Amino acid sequence: MESKTKPKYKKPQLSKKGINSTNNKSIKVDNHKDNNINKNKITTKTLKKEIKPTSIKQTLQNQKRQNHKSPAKNSLNEKLDLIIRNQAKILKNEELILGKEDEIEELEKEELAQDKRTSQTEEETLDELAKIEAKLNQSISKPLKLVTKRDLFKGFIGSFVGVMGHFAFSKAADIANNLSMYQTSFLYFVAAVIVIIMLYYTGFRNIEKQIILKFMPLRAITLYSVSIFTILFVNLIFGKIDFPLEFTQIYKIVGANIILAVMGAVTADLLGKVENH
User: Fold this and answer.
1) Tens of pLDDT, residues 176-191
2) For the chain, which residues make up each domain, given as ranges?
3) What is the rounded CA–CA span in Å between residue 201 and residue 173?
């Protein structure tokens, strides 16, 4: 068999036209690069010229010019500054007010504590007064009350003691013979005044007038009448009154004894204690 041989590789040979075209292309690329470099150099130079630092005075003058050109902006800034200052003042005032409010709250708390203390002391004093009143009601004499059988009995005993003391009734009977009707009437009047004075100044002085007018006349009349009855009873027992007697004789005998009998009856009534109901 015949051996096959590989064909040798042959470099392509450029023609003169191809060589010229490639050379022209390379020249164009180099020129383009040079142009770009030159352009960059020019721009850097211009930038350096443009970016030269200005002086401080010029910048300040420019700012002043800008400020003169924009007065509206300056007015707004001034207003904002005023607002900020006012807000700061308001905050300070609020802090002062809050401090004063705290002081006021503390004072109010102290006042409330004092009020509580005073209320407690008042309650304690009221309780003590109530206890004292209860004790007084148990120990005080009984001038203000409706008339009862006990009152009548006390009046009778008091007037009996007054008439019987040192046998005053016998002396009064002798005195009655020498008394006139006017004198005996005056003695009756004096006895009534004594009853009223003793009842008022010993039991009814610190009581309202309405209560006095309601209770005091009834009590005085009962004691006065009990005294007259006691005088008649004692004189009948000891034979100082004989039947038949005239009205004038009885009137004079009672008048001679009435003052002592009334004083005894009122004293016995005032020495009585309050009944427990």
Assistant:
1) 888 889 999 999 999 9
2) 21-51, 53-139, 142-270
3) 31
